[in-house]
Amino acid sequence: MRAVGIALFVFCIFPLTSGLKTKYYVNGQNQEYECVDDSSDTSNLCELIEACADHDEVAHCKEQVLLAVFKDNKFYAKAFGVVIGNKYVLTTVSSRIPKFFTREEWVAINSPHGYMLTSSQLRPAVKFGRYNLTAWHDLAVFELAWKNGNFGFATSIRELQPGEIPWGVDTGSSGKGVKYDKLKMGTDAECTQAFATEEPHFNKEIMYCAKDEHYNVANNKNTVRTLGSGVVAGSDRKIVGLKSLYSTRSNYFIIVKVAKFCGWLKEISNNDIDC
User: Fold this and answer.
1) CA-wise closest residue to 142 among 206, 185, 80
2) What pLDDT score does 132 carry?
3) How far apart are CA 94 and CA 129, in angstroms?
């Protein structure tokens, strides 16, 4: 079943009885497996990522990937990342995907295909930045496990231009689930105030911030899954940021300015990442 519920500019995805079907190689055969949401009936991560592929001309979110665990012949949706470079997935250190050895088989879903990142026999090929409260290099880059595999496209990076309104993943308008929508960006003053009494403090040199107007504590377990999702701008769908942590005292969240780390991204990818 295909996802439904598309509006002209903003779409909200409603739970379906049949999950997203994703093609994936198992035991040498390319078959379709179902994507299911990991936690609650208010999750809608599988339908969101399917809609990104189906209605790319409306939502501009083909570059988003769903990070899921493959077990029992199903994909269990856990987190987000973004296609960056022909064979790389960019997410945050703060996202839920393990950065070291795990017995779970993690897959990047870019509908309608799944791409292995790690398994019980395979350590993740991952590079991550200096995750600390001063530099706030909250970036992790995973290389696809299949050396001959690739996404077939790459997403390049730039900075957000004055007056631009980017798109990203935040809380559904009902206060439940998640949606892909235009983000309400905070001013430097608003962002500084939102993170004034906690760390990391807002640093406009390496961060943007945005306000999640419908965020609430009750939906937090779904909101946490949006960490690592891409923030994009323009008809060229360039990556301007990556969603990082929420304030613990407000509904603002940090967006890492990915372009500030272009040198590092080029270095670790042998210039495969367009920056």
Assistant:
1) 80
2) 67
3) 11
Residue 189 has pLDDT above 90, yes or no: yes
Name the CATH topology of 21-143: Thrombin, subunit H (2.40.10)
φ and ψ at residue 51, rounded to 5 degrees: -65, -35
* DSSP structure string for 209-241: EEE-TT--GGGHHHHGGGTT-EEEETTTTEEEE
pLDDT of residue 4: 27
Neighbouring-strand partners of residue 213 = none
| Token code pair at residue 47 | 């339908």
Helix (H, G, I), strand (E, B) or coil at 178: strand
Kindly compute the dihedral angle of the four CA atoms of residues 150, 35, 211, 61, in this order, to the nearest 10 degrees. 40
For tokens 């809380």, name the residue. Answer: 171
DSSP three-state, residue 46: helix
Distances, alpha carbon 85 to alpha carbons 52, 127, 157, 192, 252, in Å: 19, 14, 10, 32, 29
Give the Cα separation of 119 and 102 in Å (integer).
7
User: Which residues, at least 6 apart from 27, have a Cβ–Cβ distance to it below 8 Å?
Assistant: none
Higher pLDDT, 150 or 252: 252
Ordered by start, the domain boundaries in the chain are 21-143, 167-259
The Cα–Cα gap between 120 and 47 comes to: 27
Cβ partners under 8 Å of residue 137, min gap 6: 129, 130, 131, 261, 264
Whole-number Å distance between alpha carbons of 42 and 110: 22
The single-letter code of the amino acid at 70 is F
| 159-184 residue pLDDT tens | 999 999 999 998 888 878 888 889 99
